[in-house]
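Troubleshooting: if your tokenizer reports a length mismatch, compare your output against this known-good record of 132 residues.
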Amino acid sequence: MPSHFHAVVWIDHSQARIFHLGLSGSDEITLHPQLATRHLHHKANAIGSGHAAPDKTFYAEVSKALADAGEILIIGPASAKTELANHIRANAPDIAKRIAAVEAADHPSDAEIIAYAKRHFKLPLPRVQAPG
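Known-good structure output:
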């Protein structure tokens, strides 16, 4: 039985921030690709798209970090979120069944990521007391 049922991962090509959410709070793991993403510049009349290939080792590490989650939300800007989801579907079908959604998200703070995931999974948000 997993200790945290829900997980949210915010991912781009330079890092993955993974939050496991449970009744006792949340914990975070930050993973980085082994090789920093190179910025490729596409030249006119050249073969190739000018995009770096997906980092399969990086996506495998992220998949491993998500393995014990019961429900997974993948968010992030650009294409890394869909590349991660496709990697999981191709290489870890048991984890892929637990992907609840893949959604766009710019560059939120850690607190915004956790709040977004709690709303998505319909988990209770912390109560804020009115100033008195």
